[in-house]
TrEMBL record:
Gene3D superfamilies: Cytochrome-c3 Hydrogenase, chain B
Cofactor entry: Fe cation; Ni(2+)
Pfam family, one: NiFeSe_Hases
Lineage, top ranks: Archaea, Methanobacteriati, Methanobacteriota, Thermococci, Thermococcales
Protein name per UniProt: Sulfhydrogenase subunit alpha
Length: 427
């Protein structure tokens, strides 16, 4: 039997460096590997022994795309470790900060990383002549997300103003009103995004009837980001403190990032997983659009993740406006409370733009004694590899360049952050 390798050395338009290797024989696809070749960075290990506040400044450096997600998840884990619970208004403002990350990340992914695939362009800059409005919408949505993070956390990436107990300082009332005005202006752009992606090809080659979706069970019955339990689409729920019992990481020889399994099976996290598990918690215009386009939000197709992100853009903009209204109604707000550092262990799992991010932090004598982090991409890698194989099996007889194109599209549907994933290899 003759084996023919097809290799994608670098998956374009994703954060980080990874590749795809497909080996075909006379009877079809023999082997598919997602080669995560970016080296490990040992973020857990380098924070051991650091003062807790110093470690909390290190964790957001895992990723610039999701730095707010890493910061806020680490802060919540640290607060749980020392036995501190933030006030409701502080938690709401953390939601708002996190939503800024969601809006920016979703806009960049949908318009600049994914849309070129659907429209037949190699990069977003080449779209400018014909799709100038779409690029302008992308940047406007990205900018309002970044402004939320800038105002609340001192800068759009690697945020330092979000601290244990609250915030170093809060935006002014005028700045909150400015954000609200710009969010209202952005809402029609988000609705346009839903309409645009509803018309694009759905790529039904990847139909996985065994798909398992995992997402946070949001607190207070509002579709969102923070929660104390994890919901699984098979009906099971477990407290976030038990994630290491149910999310099992395994080393694979072709990847610097581990693969994650639930009940020995791959599973998916991300926007479509949040919709599958929590669609009943949507409200406002997003709820209406969900009802209108429910058939496109298929639980068995990873490409539905793109459309789910578009729907979330609408939801999170509306949610941000509501949080600002609530904040202004309570104005003025004390930015932080004192936190007493003591020994303990804390666990937090939140919804990053790409899905669940899990943190465990143990504190002893004011320093980090243990840290464990599982990122969304590390959770998705096993199911992502399976779906790349399914796409390859459908198209292995196609022109090799088209096969490469379709398998790369499959990876991009997950909005992976490869750099995020590789830190989990231990020293």
């Amino acid at each position: 039997m003759m084996y023919i390798p097809i290799t994608v050395d670098h998956i374009a338009r994703v954060e980080g460096k990874g590749g795809i290797e497909i080996v075909m024989g006379d009877e079809g696809v023999k082997e598919v590997k997602l080669n995560i070749i970016e080296g490990p960075r040992f973020f857990e290990a380098i924070t051991i022994g650091k003062k807790l506040e110093e470690a909390l400044a290190v964790y957001p450096r895992i990723c610039s795309f999701c730095s707010a997600a890493h910061k806020l998840t680490a802060v919540e884990a640290a607060e749980k470790a020392v036995g501190f619970t933030p006030r409701e208004e502080i938690q709401d403002l953390r939601d708002l900060l996190y939503i800024g990350d969601m809006i920016e990340s979703h806009a960049l992914h949908l318009y600049l990383l994914v849309l070129p695939d659907y429209l037949g362009y190699s990069n977003p800059l080449s779209m400018l002549d014909k799709y100038k409005k779409e690029i302008e919408y992308a940047m406007a949505l990205k900018n309002i997300g970044a402004k939320i993070m800038d105002y609340l956390a001192s800068r759009p990436i690697h945020q330092e103003n979000a601290i244990m107990g609250g915030f170093g300082k809060l935006p002014t009332k005028a700045q909150f009103e400015e954000l609200k005005r710009e969010l209202k202006e952005a809402l029609p752009m988000a609705e346009y995004t839903v309409e645009l992606f509803s018309k694009l090809e759905q790529y039904k080659e990847v139909e996985d009837k065994e798909m398992i979706h995992m997402a946070v069970k949001p607190r207070n019955g509002v579709y969102g980001i923070f929660g104390d339990y994890i919901k699984v689409s098979d009906g099971f729920e477990f407290p976030v403190e038990d994630y290491q019992k149910h999310i099992v990481e395994r080393v694979v020889e072709h990847s610097f990032a581990k693969h994650s399994f639930y009940k020995d099976k791959p599973f998916m996290v991300g926007a479509i997983s949040r919709i599958v598990n929590n669609a009943d918690l949507l409200y406002g215009r997003a709820k209406e659009l969900y009802a209108q386009y429910k058939d496109l939000l298929r639980y068995d197709n990873c490409f539905a993740n793109n459309f789910a992100q578009a729907l979330e853009l609408v939801y999170f903009i509306e949610r941000a406006i509501d949080i600002i209204d609530d904040t202004l109604a309570k104005w003025p707000i004390r930015p932080r409370d004192e936190v007493e550092i003591r020994d303990g262990r804390g666990v937090s799992i939140t919804e990053a733009p790409r899905g669940l991010v899990a943190y465990t932090i143990e504190v002893k004598d004011g320093r980090v004694a243990y840290a464990d982090i599982i990122t969304p991409t590390a959770m998705n890698l096993a199911i992502m590899e399976r779906h790349v194989r399914m796409m390859a099996e459908k198209h292995y007889q196609d022109d090799p360049e088209r096969l490469k194109y379709l398998t790369e599209m499959t990876v991009r549907a997950y909005d992976p952050c490869i750099s995020c994933s590789v830190h989990v290899v231990k020293l």
